[in-house]
Amino acid sequence: MQLEFTCNGRPVRMQADGSMRALDLLRDLLGLTGTKEGCGRGECGACTILVDGSPVNACLLYAAKLQGRAVLTVEGLAKGEVLHPLQEAFLEEGAVQCGYCTPGLLLSSKALLDRVPHPTDPEIEQALSGNLCRCTGYAKILKAVQRAADRAGRGDGTSRRGREAGR
Amino acid sequence: MSAQPVNTGELAVVGARVRKVDGRELVTGQARFAADLRFPGLLYASARRAGVPAGKLVEVDPSPALRLPGVVAVLLARDIPGPNLIGILPPFDQPLLAAGEVRYEGESLALAVGVSREEARRGAAAVRARIEPWEPILTVEQALDPAARRIHPGGNVTYSKKLVKGDVAQGFAGAQVVVENTYQTSFQEHAYLEPEAVVAVPGGDGRITVYASCQSPFHLRGHIAANLGLPASRVRVVQAYTGGSFGGKDDVATEIGALAAIAAVRLGVPVMIAHEREESIIGSNLRHAARIRYRTGALRDGTLVAGEAEILLDGGAYASESPFVTMKAMIHAAGPYRVPNVRVESTTVYTNKTYCGAFRGFGVPQVTFASESQMDELAAALGLDPLELRRRNALRPGEGTATGQVFTQSVGIGRTIERVAEKAGPRPMGPKPAEGPPAGAQPATDGGRYLYGRGVACLLQGISNGAEGIDVVGASVQMAQDGSALVGVGLTDMGQGSRTVFAQVAAEALGVDITRITVRQVDTDAVHDSGPTVASRSTTVGGTAVLKAAREVAGSLRSMAGLMLKCPPEAVRLAEGFAMLEADPQARIPLAEVATAAYWSGFPLMHLAFSRAPDARFDHETHQGDIYIAYNFGTHLMDVRVDRWTGKVKVLRHLAAHDVGRVVNPLGLEGQVEGGSLIGFALAHLERIDTEGGHIRNANFADYAVPSILDRLPTETLVVEEPSPAGPFGAKGVGEPPVAGAAAAFANAVADATGLRFTRLPITRADIAAALAKEV
Q1: Looking at the structure, do residues B548 and B651 belong to the same domain, yes or no?
Q2: Of 1.10.10.10, 1.10.510.10, 3.20.20.70, 1.10.150.120, which CATH number belongs to A85-157?
Q3: Fewer beta carbons below 10 Å: N end or C end of chain B?
Q4: How close does chain B come to A92, measured CA to CA in Å?
């Protein structure tokens, strides 16, 4: 089928089998291998992407469902050389060990902060409960999300919403 | 071990809280893991698994698979040029593709190669196998029955050893109190987020490159070359970014690495094998399930006089690391205590189940759970505070371990107990079953729904290969003319942060910023064989090799700078990216200028150095002698609240004190302690591979309960630094030790809260609720 959607801010127009998994389309056809496969059953969250701002397990999503949507993968988080505040915070807090779960966690965190700029711990737990990490024990992930939220809250002259619109 | 003082002077980079040096590529999605690699003409392969736990393999017929579109080839055991065997300790016992016999359900029988992952899988499923099933041997008792069918020609005992120190009969004769119990632990899955993956790429030069998610690339190279029937020089293994391993990506990586390589050579194109989660759980090693009978004798004042343990490990279908796990469990069975009389028998047996091997802790979490439960049972029998009992028996410098090994320094167990005691604070609130609320506690307002308890556990974990063999690391340091340096070590970073540690050590010795150091990918063509990345040895043994190599390069730079500054080399200090006069730091030359001058003057700017741990020397009958180059010592404390109605346990407090010799990177250290503790907590409370009739019933993350963020622990990492002469700047490894501490402390906390001693891990919610219901 003819598929049209935006991916990391760029328009994509392509022929693809609509019944393939969105995960395979991203990884195999678009070369966006930052999105990982951990279980193939929606149980680990490693393949989390944002579709119209909402976190989705790309392993459970038909490619056809991307039609007309805006997709964000981990490759679209940084702005050129400048890392997204969540990426910075994950590094600063030591929330990354092997890094395999990290893309999914970053995107689930971004979806949360876009919706709730200053989340409580239970809100963070709720938002990230579908993303498994075997290395860190999670405490540093929680701190990283808090740190990114604090940073966004301090502001740098523009609102976070404004900065994102400008991406 | 010599008593030389450890240099722990002012340091710039070692000890600093630094980011992961390879973090940026991980947060941007640019890091390429094995399954992310793409090559022209890439094919995919998938194994046909046996699906039955035991039987005679009569016939494997690939023809139905070969008739499918998209299936390119099917490999059988007879297509393997080499011995069709892998393993850790010779004689190897595990086939790549089964021939004649099936020993566990995950046994690979044939490898289907297809143009896509999906077509390879369909091909594998279509391979027809005729297996005459045998009654599987599923328990340790069945395996040890003299009449039992032999799973391997040598019988069903994989490995058996004993440790004898002093005379336990005499020890128990003098004991005033004796406690005894039998403890069990269950199979645990590594559950690294990245399933195993490899890509084999044939070169035009008769060589083959295998990119692998793996832990020990040189181990892979040896097995791949042997099974290809080629010399090792024809095989190159490159470690791709590896998404966790925890001991789990050794055997299985050699298995799929060799299979992919054989298919790639045969077909002349690149071949990828990437496991699905179910395959990853069923078809790669687990943590051994254990049954440990333990008896401890003490005097009335708590002084330990004798310890006796019989350890039985279920090792599943193949030996893997079982011989070494058998030994390590045994060596650690007496805990970090002064016990004059010890006898331990340790045995692993074969069963028709998924094989067991290395998993973070390597037998130590199982025996620590047993021995620390014993300590609490003993404390109760003596009416002593559990921490006080441990304090009275904690090893001190100059005293012998269970193997009689004496360390004169870096024996920090006593200090970890004190750190925990200082930080512990009042006991958690609420009534205990047998008594009223503790003094000063708020009256419980929960209607008696909650029970509160506190558990402590002490542990030790040997650093280095020890009794497992020679321990050598080769490390290279190469400085470029711009003053940056490239470090190469044959030890892998699987997420634990060893690249960052190596970068810190090199930066420290060269006097440069850490951003000027690159630690290269492990490539068997480019780094020295450094043995397996195991046994918490990277920082200690690997870091020492990096330090030596970096110091040689620093020597060249100082010699050159001496000529430039007209002073002897000893008067030159390297710091802040400059060579400067020790006596007058304002007299300084940028290191890039010194390096450039050194290059043109012929001073060597690259050096390869070796660190060799002193060989273990011990009696092979009694295991008395010097085994490890150092021990990490630890004390954990957990406060819990148990929901009497549901069995749910909330961890209110978790203190984890470890003697790490010297902190290299506090951020990385906390990460190891927090992450390792959660795996230990999961072993103790959440996770259990369920088998039924030789089949794993929960080979997915819906049914196998990997902790989520909701299960995280409130871990506080407490650091004790008793520097060790074995490691760089005194540092000792910390990768494995927290697992044992958290697991044992959890069990003791639940026992304290409920008044019931649970002797089997995991102690699940259901177990607790059922046991409490019975009490009422």
Answers
A1: no
A2: 1.10.150.120
A3: C
A4: 6
